[in-house]
Amino acid sequence: MCYNDFTFLLLLFPSSSSITTVSAFEPDFVFPLENVTVAQGRDATFTCVVNNLGGYRVAWIKADAKAILAIHEHVITNNGRLSVTHNDFNTWTLNIKSVKMEDRGQYMCQVNTDPMKMQTAFLEVVIPPDIVYEETSGDMMVPEGGSAKLVCKARGYPKPKITWKREDGREIIARTGPHGKTKSHQVEGEMLSLTKITRSEMGAYLCIASNSVPPSVSKRMKVQVHFHPLIQVPNQLVGAPLLTDVTLICNVEASPKAINYWQRENGEMIISNDRYLMSEIENSMYAVQMTLVLRKTQKSDFGGYKCISKNSIGDAEGTIRLYEMELHKKKPNRYNNYDDINGSNDEDNEAIRSEDQNDESIFGSNGRLFKDAQSNLINSSKASTSNFLLIVSFISPVFSVILSKLLSITL
């Protein structure tokens, strides 16, 4: 039944109560009919409050379709999801269960007065966003320096907005020309273009669809950038004393994931055991730190080592030379540490150092000064003795001979 026919019937055939009952007041709407917004699949309710209804009747009409839904407490339409309730006083309710998009539109609460009284409200049906997987990109593999285009499609009402983010929170790089480059934490649009892609752009990208109707939805797309291995050696020359532990390190970048191992310079592959411990630490999706620990180094351990990385695109190697480091004993000092002298200050320490240096200058140089003094003393003694013998010889030649022999024995 259409709206115009309903109005005509209400006016032409009023209820029996309206004929016999005289009301001093006209029907009046207490509250305006409120607009309703509901997600598809939920229930919606319109409430119409009428005072002084008397013998008049309330009808519910879908105004944009000019369709009569219910009169008083009777549902006219064949839609089984619609129902009408009355609280036996002044409140009339139109209930719509499991709302569909076709229910969206203008609704009217009407009283069959002359002229008729009515109020309208709008039912907005919204649909949460949903990813259209058949039209959306999946995981991608691209060579370094190449390009990748990620597409994300979503449906919903209102039309969802697409936003791109990196899962790790890093910036998205957009290159607009030979030298043009912009960075941002999020990009809007159904398509995300990555050009001249580098290994740092490898990772998971999130396509997020939202339209202010919860919940927002997202899809994760993994971008794998392929390149041949690259090895960086922090220390190419490493020294270690005998019977100590030493660690050799190589930093590897490779994608797809590479096979990494160690060799001696003669090509002998190193296998983990009690003396050789090998491990790998993943620093990112493509970066790995290789370590080789040699326990209690022996003479045979010194020499060249190679760290080797191979994947489906290529291979690389780095070299490290391990040499024996000799531990030198410290020369004994007057004090092991000048700072250990109790109560000494900087001036005292400096005085001790100067004294040691003077001692070394005097008694150093293979005792040269001491030998010179000893030689002078002997020469002086000999000269005095010669003079004494000369005088004695003048007095007694025999006595001088005996005395010279005694002195020669003494000296």
TrEMBL record:
SMART domains: IG (SM00409), IGc2 (SM00408), IGv (SM00406). Residues 1-24 form the signal peptide. One of its GO terms (cellular component) is neuron projection. It comes from the Eukaryota. Keywords: Cell membrane, Disulfide bond, Glycoprotein, Immunoglobulin domain, Membrane, Repeat, Signal. Residues 27-119, 129-218, 229-321 form the Ig-like domain. Residues 334-360 are annotated as: Disordered. Pfam families: I-set, Ig_3. Gene3D superfamilies: Immunoglobulins. Its main location: membrane. It is found in: Cell membrane. InterPro entries: Ig-like_dom, Ig-like_dom_sf, Ig-like_fold, Ig_I-set, Ig_sub, Ig_sub2, Ig_V-set, Neural/epithelial_adhesion. This is Ig-like domain-containing protein. It comes from Chironomus riparius.
